[in-house]
UniProtKB/TrEMBL annotation:
Database matches in InterPro entries: LACTB2_WH, Metallo-B-lactamas, RibonucZ/Hydroxyglut_hydro, Sec-metab_biosynth-thioest, WH-like_DNA-bd_sf
Domain Metallo-beta-lactamase: 31-182
Pfam families: Lactamase_B, WHD_BLACT
Classification lineage: Bacteria, Bacillati, Actinomycetota, Actinomycetes, Pseudonocardiales
Signal peptide residues on this chain, from the entry's feature table: none
Annotated protein name in UniProt: Beta-lactamase class B
Family matches, as SMART domains: Lactamase_B
SUPFAM superfamilies for this protein: Metallo-hydrolase/oxidoreductase (SSF56281)
């Protein structure tokens, strides 16, 4: 795998470019993908997920040209923290599903279509990673935030919500390019969503099996030590969050 191109705006599709923030970690992979969307002939762009309040990164992002709108896929700091600074620098409003993140604009609504930057952007509410997670569909591509990553699987807050969101994404046309919040772009987002759904169902079966051995009242940590025994222990903490969501799902009265 080639080294990440930090600080360089990389064209990915005819209407989408990415600026990779230098904030690599086990949670952010190579770093946060800040997406710059611009239709043919448009004078301004849409910036999705400016990232942390990383002034060097945000300044480079501002230098990509005029910005008409800033969109946040969800509230986590590695996507949203820098939005207020960037909004002031770019002179553009911020919109998100969570009204508290908005600056000079209304909260996003599921199914809403936004015409901006020479593009039509359709909003999909895709909770699961967080309650306020959204995806944006435009021009045969979809920006997924942390709902689907370019590599690996995402940490979950609510499994029932997440399974419903995956089923929504599976309905996308084949060949829809996935532009994730972390990691490389994906050639067929619907196919990846199907793989995620299969993976989650397999994990649920593993958790059910672990509970048969450990007992119905097993803690998330105990389940992680069984189900994720072959995974680097450095990843057990985020795995514990996902297992907690799986246990909540399995223990709910009306699980899927």
């Amino acid at each position: 795998m080639s080294a990440p191109a930090y600080g360089v705006l990389r064209q990915v599709t005819p209407t989408a470019s990415v600026l990779l923030e230098h904030n690599p970690s086990s949670m952010t992979l190579e770093g946060t993908n800040s997406w710059v969307l611009r239709g043919a002939g448009a004078s301004g762009s849409v910036v999705v997920d400016p990232g942390h309040e990383d002034i060097e990164h945000l300044t480079l992002l501002a230098e990509t040209g005029a910005v008409e709108l800033i969109v946040l896929t969800h509230h986590h700091p590695d996507h949203a923290e820098g939005a207020p600074w960037f909004a002031e620098r770019a002179g553009a409003p911020v919109r998100a599903f969570d009204e508290s993140l908005c600056i000079g604009g209304k909260s996003l609504v599921d199914g809403e279509v936004i015409e901006v930057g020479g593009l039509r952007l359709s909003v999909l509410h895709t909770p699961g990673h967080t309650g306020d997670s959204i995806c944006l569909v435009s021009e045969g591509q979809i920006l997924t935030g942390d709902t689907i990553l370019g590599r690996g699987t995402t940490v979950l807050h609510d499994l029932g919500d997440y399974l419903r969101s995956l089923r929504k994404l599976i309905g996308l046309p084949g060949g829809t390019t996935g532009l994730p919040g972390h990691g490389p772009e994906l050639p067929d987002l619907a196919a990846t969503a199907r793989e995620y759904l299969t993976h989650r169902e397999e994990r649920l079966d593993q958790v059910r099996s672990a509970l048969e051995t450990l007992g119905a009242d097993a803690t998330p940590r105990q389940v992680v030590e069984v189900v994720y025994a072959d995974v680097d222990q450095a990843l057990w903490a985020p795995a514990e969050w996902s297992v907690r969501a799986q246990l909540d799902y399995l223990r709910s009265e009306d699980g899927e």
